[in-house]
């Protein structure tokens, strides 16, 4: 298994039962600026520091026998500079007592600045789109009415179908504009198992795309969250439909839920957050779209409205959460993060 770790872009450290490094992959060598031989035998705390997030992750993984994830954790670098990383610690069954540590560096200041700029721009674009949609709706009603009268005049003639096309397209455009102007609603919050709307959306997509393979990996210990269940059915449905269309309805989608720790959502730090990953094995998102993907009317699909991801982003944001994605030629993963405000759950876990 160890040689194959060198193929990963994520930095991986293999530790023994005493948290000493026994192996690192090539990505970890690059990240820590140390060779494999230099790192072998070193205590992990000598390389990454004694940050509470790291020691907590090691202790929790050893105690529970399960992986432990923490995000945006402050660590020390062997060269002396502090840095932030998302890390996951997993216990190793062979040899017993060891750990597998995955590290992904986080540019905290850049991410915060970019997220704030993106949110301001998205809000401006959404408000502009809503204003334009309201202006279009009125003349659109007149166009449809005139087309209906024209259809009556042309009944039983070869040209009748042209008037019917106008009516149908006017209805389609009206539906699109209605979706655009009614996305912002005050959520009706109730304690909800997030797997309920996720499963409802999954069943709808499975029925619409019978050739699609959907696998599930749920952490059912996640407590109920204050959600608008109907809104989250829409959020998950939009993300699942996007994934299904990316694979032409014949690929594989993986649904995974986990608990993330030490997560910053907006400008607030949460000790716990629910993480929902929706991954597909499609061709990935073009680079030219990635910076604008959550804006209204942005779509890579012919005939796409470009509203699904914008609506999903708005629903996550209005619940105090966040949504982001990673994408490459092997597929795309959308991640939804939602705060878990119940400290009692962490003590019981």
In short:
This protein is an alpha+beta fold and 349 residues long. The chain folds into three domains: 105 residues, Beta-Lactamase, CATH 3.30.450; 72 residues; 159 residues, 2-Layer Sandwich (Heat Shock Protein 90). The chain has eleven helices and twelve strands.
Structure description:
The structure is a single chain. This protein folds into three domains: 105 residues, Beta-Lactamase; 72 residues; 159 residues, 2-Layer Sandwich (Heat Shock Protein 90). Helix content is 43%, strand content 26%. The chain is built from eleven helices and twelve strands. The strands form three sheets. Strands 2-1-5-4-3 form a five-stranded antiparallel β-sheet. A hairpin with a 5-residue loop joins strand 1 and strand 2. The longest helix is centred in the middle third of the chain and has 46 residues. The protein starts with 10 loop residues before the first strand and ends with a helix. InterPro entries: HATPase_C_sf, HATPase_dom, His_kinase_dom, HisK_dim/P_dom, HisK_dim/P_sf, PAS, PAS-like_dom_sf, PAS_fold. Its EC number is 2.7.13.3. It catalyses: ATP + protein L-histidine = ADP + protein N-phospho-L-histidine.
How does the SSE layout of this entry go?
Layout: E1 11-15, E2 21-24, H1 26-32, H2 36-39, H3 44-48, H4 52-64, E3 68-76, E4 82-92, E5 98-106, H5 108-153, H6 160-181, E6 190-192, H7 195-208, E7 213-217, E8 225-227, H8 229-246, E9 252-265, E10 268-280, H9 287-290, H10 308-318, E11 322-328, E12 331-339, H11 343-348
Parallel strand pairs: 7-9
Antiparallel strand pairs: 1-2, 1-5, 3-4, 4-5, 6-8, 9-10, 10-12, 11-12
